[in-house]
Amino acid sequence: MLNISRRDEVAKLVKAGLSYAEIGRRLGITRERVRKIANPKPRPKEPDLSFDVMLRTSDVARLLNIHVNVVRRWSNKGIIRAYRIGPRRDRRFRQEDIVRFLADST
């Protein structure tokens, strides 16, 4: 974690009009590091799914007593509603949707 005082110092020196290279020489860091401190990359926001219990593909397969590939195939066909999360676009399933699917299928 970056020291807060360094972040403040970099902001002060950038505001004073110094170049990233000059700030880097003063602080003993590279100009690229100064640039990253001065312009932090915003993190992508994740959807707020905290109120639901989210199940992984393997959890759904275990609950339905089927293979994980069948769960993936059903989610691709829209038989079971899947939510894609994270940068890898992993599948997650709401527990309520699976309970409803089980109730409809019996």
Short overview:
The chain has 106 residues and is mostly helical.
Notable traits:
single chain; 106 residues; mainly alpha; 3-stranded antiparallel β-sheet; 6 helices; 3 strands
Helical content stands at 40-55%
Largest sheet: 3 strands, antiparallel
By DSSP, the count of extended strands is 3
Number of domain units:
2
Molecular shape: rod-shaped
Structural class category: mainly alpha
Order of helices and strands: HHHEHHEEH
Radius of gyration: 24 Å
Head-to-tail CA distance between termini: 53 Å
Describe the structure.
Helix 2 crosses helix 3. The chain has a three-stranded antiparallel beta sheet with strand order 1-3-2. It is built from six helices and three strands, in the order αααβααββα. 54% of the residues lie in helices and 9% in strands. It folds into two domains: 35 residues; 52 residues. The termini are far apart. It is rod-shaped, with a radius of gyration of 24 Å. With 106 residues, it is mainly alpha-helical.
Q: Which secondary structure elements does this structure contain, and how are they paired or packed?
A:
Elements: H1 4-15, H2 20-27, H3 31-38, E1 54-55, H4 57-64, H5 68-77, E2 83-85, E3 90-94, H6 95-105
Antiparallel strand pairs: 1-3, 2-3
Helix pairs in contact: 2-3, 4-5
